[in-house]
Amino acid sequence: MPSPTRLAGFERIHIVGIGGAGMSALASLLIGSGKRVSGSDLKSSSVLERLKLLGATIAVGHAAENVEDADAVVYSSAIPYANVELQAARAQGIPTLARSELLAAVAEDRRVVAISGTHGKTTTTSMIALSLVNAGLAPSYLIGAELNDSGASGQAGTSDLLVVEADESDGTFLRLDPEVSVVTNVEADHLDYYGTFDELKRAFRSFVNGSRLLPVVCVDDPVIASFNLVRESCYGYGFSDAARLQIKNLVVAPHSSAFELFLDRSRLGDLELSVLGVHNVLNATAAVGAALQVGASFGDVKEALAKYVGVSRRFQHRRVAAGIRIIDDYAHLPSEIRATIAAARQLGSRRIVAVFQPHRYSRTRDLWRELGQALSGADVVVVADIYPAGEEPIPGITGELVYQAASDFRSGETYYCPRRGELAREVAAHLRVDDVCLSMGAGDITTLESELAEVLG
Q: Is 58 exposed, middle or buried (CB count within 10 Å of its CB: 0-12, 13-18, 19+)?
C-alpha cells in the first residue's frame, strides 16, 4: 500500500477528540498503516477502548503533556483554538493539522471513492466499503459511524483504494481528488459556512465535476436534477426514467426490501436488503454504481448488501423493553425524519412513537416548521428541547417551536418535554406494548433507550 508522501515524516500522530466517529476512523486507518497514534477525549467510551486494543495510547481529559514527542497534532472543527493541547503543540513548534488536512494527506496517491450528500452518505459509504471488501479489493475506508457488525468506522486495507465519507459541512470534500464522486442528495444545510444555498450547490457541482470516472448521482433529487448533467457523463440512479441505473419492481416487507436494477434499460439483476426504507434502496443503488466502476462485480455487491446490517445510529434496533421496540436514528433534518418514520411503517401495524431532539439553535430557527411537519407521519410525537452542539442560545428559539409546528400539522397526540432529565419518564407515559419507539436527533437523544429501559423495567 503506498505511503502518502505528506505523512512520511510523521511517525507519531496525536488526535485531539479521538473518540468522535470521524476522528476514530482516521485513527484506526493510521494504526493499520503503521503509524503510532495517541489521542485524548473528554470522557471514556467503547470507541476509546477499541482504539486501545488496536494499539493507540489514550488519555481521558485534555492536558499539555499528552502531546509531548508527537510529530503532529490533529484536531476537528469541534475543538476550540484555545484547547490546551493545541496551545502546547503551537508552543513546542509541533505541526497542527485540521482533520480535513489529515484526510487529504491520507488520500494522497490513492484511488478515492468519495461519498457526499446532505443525508445518506454514512450508509452509502459503508455499503460501498463492504461491497469492495467482499469483492476482494482490500480497500481502506473511513466512515462517519461504526459498522454494526464490526464496531469499526475505519480500516487500513492493502490496496490503493480508499472509500471515504466526504463531509460537505466545512468544504472538506473539495480537498479530495476522487476517482469516483458519489452524491446522494443536496438540501439547504450548513449555510452558516456557505452563506447561501447557491454557494452550497456550487460546491456540490465542483465535487461532482472533480470525479475522474463517472460520478454517481441521484437524479431523483430535484437539486441534482437541476445540475442538468449529460446522461452519458454520469451514473444517474433512482426510480425515474432519467436514471441510467434504474430501480424497478420494489417490494417492501416488515424485514426486507427487494427490487430489480437496470443499467441503460438492460436488467442487471435483483437485490434484497435487510435494512428498511426506500432511502436505503437508493443508497444501495448508489453503492452498485460506485463499486462496479472500481472493479467489483454485480454479484459481489449483491452478496455484500444482502448481509449488510447497517451502521450505528442509522435505524439501529437498540432493544426491546417491556414489549416495546426501541430504535435509534441520527435523523435531524426534515427529509431524514420522514424517511425514518416511513421505514418504521414497514414493520407493520404497530404504533410509532417518535421522540425528536432538535439539533442546534440556528438549525431550529431556520427549519422549525419543516421539522414539525416531518414528524406528522408518527402516531405519537414527543419533542425534546434543543441540543446546542456548542452553540449559544438564540432568544425565542426552543424546542417548543417544533412542538407547535408538529401540533399544527397533525391531529394525533403531541407533547413537549423541555427538561432533558425528564424525557424518559415523559415518553414512557405514552408507550404501549407493541409500540415502536423512535429516538431521533444528532445529540444525546441516543442515550434515551437505556434511560427508557430503566424506567420501563
A: buried
> Active-site residue numbers?
121-122, 165
Pick the closest to residue 143 from 243, 24, 61, 236 (CA basis): 24
Report how far apart, in Å, the C-alpha atoms of 357 and of each of 218, 343, 385, 427 are.
28, 19, 6, 12
Residues across the chain: 457
SS3 270: strand
Q: Residue 128 to residues 308, 321, 389: CA-CA distances in angstroms?
A: 11, 33, 30
Residue 410 DSSP label: -
> Tell me: the pLDDT tens digits for 230-287?
888 999 999 999 999 999 999 998 889 999 999 999 999 999 999 999 999 999 999 9
pLDDT tens figures, 53-79:
999 999 999 999 999 999 999 998 788
**Closest Cα partner for 72 from 108, 42, 102, 27?**
102
Which three three-digit cell numbers place residue 114? 468519495
Instruction: Say if CB 394 and CB 386 are below 8 A apart.
Output: no
- The CATH number of 10-97 is 3.40.50.720
How is residue 180 written as a grid cell? 469516483
The pLDDT score that the predictor gives to residue 3 is 38
- The rounded radius of gyration (Å) of the Cα atoms in the chain is 22
Q: Distance from first CA to last CA of the chain, Å, rounded? A: 51
Cell triple for residue 60? Answer: 481521558
CB atoms within 10 A of CB 361: 20
Whose CA is closest to 271, among 262, 282, 261?
261
Measured in degrees and rounded to the nearest 5, phi and psi for residue 251 equal -130, 120
Beta-carbon-side half-sphere exposure of residue 378 (alpha carbons within 13 Å): 31
Superfamily covering domain 109-307? Mur-like, catalytic domain (3.40.1190.10)
Q: Which CATH class is domain 316-456?
A: alpha beta
Instruction: Give the whole-number percent of the chain exceeding pLDDT 70.
Output: 99
What is the CA 401 to chain-centroid distance, rounded? 26
The residue behind cell 416487507 is 253
